[in-house]
Design a protein that fits this description.
Acetylornithine aminotransferase, pyridoxal phosphate, Aspartate Aminotransferase, domain 1, globular, alpha/beta
């Protein structure tokens, strides 16, 4: 049976529209499709493949654990989960860890914990959750409702209640709806899906102060910004603002599905036995891989390297823009970068993605007006140079098509 893109339409639910190419092999920051065409990977599986493809540390950890123990469920704990939790608590503000399988699940756990914490401490009237327009927190019904994009949450019937949205980087709009009924504020320290928009320092500090004033928990969604992506293990470390709960996933497993919610011992007490769970959460395979990823990522060499590579990306994008004049700015931090399109190319981010693929380059979009880059944290300088050469060809192609129309 030939495995082709056409087969997708015959056997898969049509909620995705994948590219025509089907990758079959990857190594480092290069990927090859069924025909043997090679691509430079600036997408990283949407900020997941933080060590690129088939990194030896990950392959070894997975192989070794696969020959020992795959699954136990949460009726028992296991050594990789305990080791990973210890490394995470040693490296962060957190004292307790809950393991899940994805960012959405980590955020779901964070939101349920916040509601239970508020109920136990203050009563059922303290249930308001505030999040931000254009935010993204996952696709479960709770997290997609908290996410501030109605296109993702509308059309599925009545939504969970007591959830409000305000504008990102607008402290006054938050202050206007916060009260002692607020149990939590959920925020990305840098909005990813919403356009790669960084939070202002004063705004983040103000959000923390308002949470303290109203006895509300501050939840950082670091699913995309976390695990080295911005040049520190977690982005909060560079802001001086410490959350009460943090959700992490994506790069946490380097490509193996895993998510985690981190919090303090005092807050964690409110998820008593039986209040929440996950059959696969914290399984030995995922935790063994994640531990290997963390041992590589959480080093000065890699984290400082992220900041150096950011500059290489910025320099290359600025050079391309000087020649072709397509971007208004390059936003973001570390290796979570977004090139915002100018008025002439508004709404055409996907055109750049498609043209890039034709030139042998994998990139992402963030909305319709931003081209997004989330490569491996250890991508080589040669791969950056080659990828940017291909991106320039893609940009020239889109510009030429625009001028011809």
């Amino acid at each position: 049976m030939p495995v082709t893109r056409a087969l997708f339409n015959e056997v898969m639910v049509p909620n995705y529209n994948p590219a025509a190419i089907i990758p079959v092999r990857g190594e480092g920051s290069r990927v090859w499709d069924q025909e043997g065409q090679e691509f430079v990977d600036f997408a990283g599986g949407i900020a997941v493949s933080c060590l690129g493809h088939c990194h030896p540390a990950m392959v070894n950890a997975l192989t070794e654990q696969a020959n020992k123990l795959w699954h136990l469920s949460n009726v028992m704990t296991n050594e990789p989960a305990l080791r990973l939790a210890k490394k995470l608590t040693d490296a962060t503000f957190a004292e307790r860890v809950y393991f899940a399988n994805s960012g959405a699940e980590a955020n779901e756990a964070a939101l349920k914990l916040a509601r239970r914490w508020a109920l136990d401490n203050f009563g059922e009237q303290k249930n308001q959750i505030i999040a931000f327009n254009k935010g993204f927190h996952g696709r479960t019904f709770f997290t997609v409702t908290v996410g501030g994009q109605e296109a993702y949450s509308d059309g599925f019937g009545p939504k969970p209640g007591a959830i409000e949205h305000v504008d990102y980087n607008d402290l006054a709009s938050l202050e206007a709806v916060m009260s002692d009924q607020t149990c939590a504020v959920m925020i990305e320290p840098l909005q990813g899906e919403g356009g790669v928009v960084p939070a202002d320092q004063a705004f983040l500090e103000g959000v923390r102060a308002l949470c303290d004033k109203h006895n509300a928990l501050l939840i950082f969604d670091e699913v995309q910004t976390g695990f080295g992506r911005t040049g520190s293990l977690y982005a909060y470390e560079q802001t001086g603002v410490t959350p009460d709960i943090l959700a992490t996933a994506k790069a946490l497993g380097g490509g193996f599905p895993i998510g985690a919610m981190l919090t303090t011992a005092e807050i964690a007490e409110h998820l008593k036995v039986g209040t929440h769970g996950s059959t696969y959460g914290g399984n030995p395979l995922a935790c063994a891989v994640s531990e290997a990823v963390m041992d590589v990522v959480n080093t000065p060499e890699v984290l400082e390297g992220v900041k150096a590579k950011e500059q290489l990306f910025r320099n290359a994008l600025n050079a391309i823009n000087e020649k072709h004049n397509v971007f208004t700015e390059v936003r973001g931090q570390g290796l979570l970068l977004g090139a915002a399109l100018n008025e002439n190319f508004k709404g055409k981010a996907r055109d750049f993605l498609v043209a890039s693929a034709e030139e042998g380059l994998m990139v992402l979009v963030a909305g319709t007006d931003v081209v997004r880059f989330t490569p491996s944290l250890i991508i080589s300088e040669d791969d950056i140079t080659e990828g940017m050469a291909r991106f320039e060809k893609a940009v020239a192609k889109v510009v030429a098509a625009q001028q011809a129309s």
